Amino acid sequence: MAENEQKSISLENVISTAIQVPGVKVNREIFLREQFKGLPRDRMEEIIDKGPVDALCDRNQLRKMVKKIINERTIISTGASFAAGLPGGLAMAAT
User: Fold this and answer.
1) Are 18 and 24 in contact (CB under 8 A)?
2) Which of the ends of the chain has fewer CB neighbours closer than 10 A, N or C?
3) pTM to 2 decimals?
């Protein structure tokens, strides 16, 4: 087996394993409804059916939305990592 094929198979294994972890897989419809709440029902359905880009959503608005989502998720991830590291840091300080 070629090296590229081996890397591809490994990446596929990592991704398929990751999506089985709770919280990793995202329900697309729920996510879009949450992000575009407040829009008229027909516009919301168009975005869900076609996707935001094909539904001709404003690209600048989408960029702002993406940055906000990334920042929120980064803060949550950083906070969880910090909290998970506290017991080890306290144990190290105690020794």
Assistant:
1) yes
2) C
3) 0.58
